[in-house]
Amino acid sequence: MQNKILLGPGPTNIDERVKSALSREPISHLDPDFFIVLDQISSSLRKIFQTKNKVTFTASGTGSSGMEMSMINLIEPGEKVLILKNGEFSSRMESLAQKLKADVSTITVEWGESFDQSFVIEKIKSIDNLKLVCAVHAETSTGVLQEIDLIGDFLKETEILFLVDAVTSLSGIDLRVDEWGIDSCFSGSQKCLSVPPGLAPITFSDKALSKIKKRNNLISSWYFDLEMLINYWGKDRVYHHTAPVNMLFGLNEALNISLDEGLNNRFERHKRNGEYFLSRLKKIGLQSFVNEDKFKSLPMLKSVLIPDRFNDKEFREKLLKNHNLEIGGGLGPTKGKIWRFGLMGFNSRKELIDNLFDTLEIYIN
Ligand code: PLP
């Protein structure tokens, strides 16, 4: 199998430092030396999530396991939950909230659009006894950024919890868990952290923990039961499940890489390369799916309208076969209508964008 250049919505290619960490000899998940690694991961994640939350660790599973862990622990049957629905990943949160038998309301905008925060706050005010608001910070299915700081600011002063999917945003754009009043936030290893898929960094505020303590119903999961997992990641080190040790070695190194670069430098690099991508896109006459005049597109995920003359699937297959280059297609209503280009973490690099457009130009002009 050939190596590929991964410029789709994740996974990304990975740094040599991460490769060598992943390929270390395993040690036991109950070895005291491994506990040092767990503590390092929690400590680095606190810096990257910009939080002081004690309960900051990693779920064993892809980004979706972070969603499950957040929602399963925070939602009880019959509770009112509001979902900001503007793409595939917020639709998944709606579906999970329904499975958990919550009383679910949604507000909706078109795919490719984001919500006006004051509109969201008015909607929140209009729902009596609302318990939880769920939003996706970086909607990877469309490439739009949802600003959340004002919503979180408002929720801080209430009993309502705020749950944010930061699968694509973490370590690529500013995300301030404490300052923005986020109570539960999860991510995925394979996006801007540039680790293979399989881990979900996650954090819970004290407000979220006290809600979990006061639950009237048992949590309907064993694997994602936060109180049991805290006994492993916290000081008691009680065996829960066999932690994926080598993946955690890889994540630990990737977090070191992020912190060595510096968060702000990392955000700046993603921003600069996102802008460079748009300038090259303009030159070949293609158009962004997100209306850049009205909404903010993500620096790490650009969605582009496919010109009529292209067959989406055939074109992407050709790039893979002839150039070892992966780009993403659309999901749901955008299937066959957009391409999604990931410029995440290790792959947010000017030379990769130049290589991408040099290749696209062979077919587009
Ligand atoms: N949320 C967002 C915003 C995502 O982009 C993704 C994956 O692309 C997920 C959730 C689900 O993550 P995973 O596929 O790692 O389970």
Concise summary:
By secondary structure, this protein is α/β, with parallel strands linked by helices. The protein has 12 helices and 14 strands.
Q: What does it look like?
A:
This protein has two domains: 5-10 and 263-364, Aspartate Aminotransferase, domain 1; 16-259, 3-Layer(aba) Sandwich (Aspartate Aminotransferase, domain 2). The chain is built from twelve helices and 14 strands. It has helices at 16-22, 32-49, 63-74, 88-99, 117-125, 149-156, 206-213, 226-233, 245-261, 263-283, 312-323, 350-364, and strands at residues 5-6, 55-60, 80-85, 103-108, 130-136, 138-139, 144-145, 161-165, 184-186, 199-204, 301-305, 325-326, 328-329, 338-342. Strand 13 and strand 14 (338-342) form a beta hairpin. The model has no long low-confidence stretch (mean pLDDT 98).
